[in-house]
Amino acid sequence: MNLNITGHHVEVTPAIREYVNTKVDRVIRHFDNVTSVSVILSVEKLVQKSEVTVHVRGKDLFAESQDEDMYAAIDAMTDKLDRQVIKYKQKMQGHGHDALKHQTIET
After folding, report:
1. How many CB atoms lie within 10 A of CB 79?
2. Would residue 85 count as lying in a domain?
3. pLDDT, tens digit, 9 for 90 and up, residues 54-64
């Protein structure tokens, strides 16, 4: 998995990089097939903004959050992403079970 963290009008310090890494790892451990993760941290006037795009097989998941504190924005973003990942995973598992229910057994 590739993790790319970039900053727009903000310096990505090692502390922020480590914080984002631990938060994103917590979320994507639900999946085995994550190809890449792109995180963009930005500052616009007094608003701290964080965005993440997770590329999984068959879909791209996107979440963003804004707050006055960068760490709070990252927390909210990962919470949103976590909900999307769980929903997507349940959807993928549900499709597999539906296919098994509709098969007919020939004797």
Report:
1. 14
2. yes
3. 998 888 999 99
Residue 106 belongs to a domain: no
Kind and range of the H or E run holding 36: strand 34-44
What is the pLDDT averaged over residues 41-58? 91
CATH number of the structural domain spanning residue 86: 3.30.160.100
**pLDDT at residue 101 in the model:** 52
Q: Maximum CA pair distance of the chain?
A: 70
Distance separating alpha carbons of residues 26 and 19, to the nearest angstrom: 11
Cα–Cα distance, 93 to 46 (Å, whole number): 42
Q: Which residues contact 92 (CB under 8 A, 6 or more apart)?
A: none
Residue found by looking up tokens 């976590």 in the block: 82
- Give the residue numbers spanning the domain of 53: 2-101
| Residues found in the chain | 107
Tokens encoding 43: 């500052």
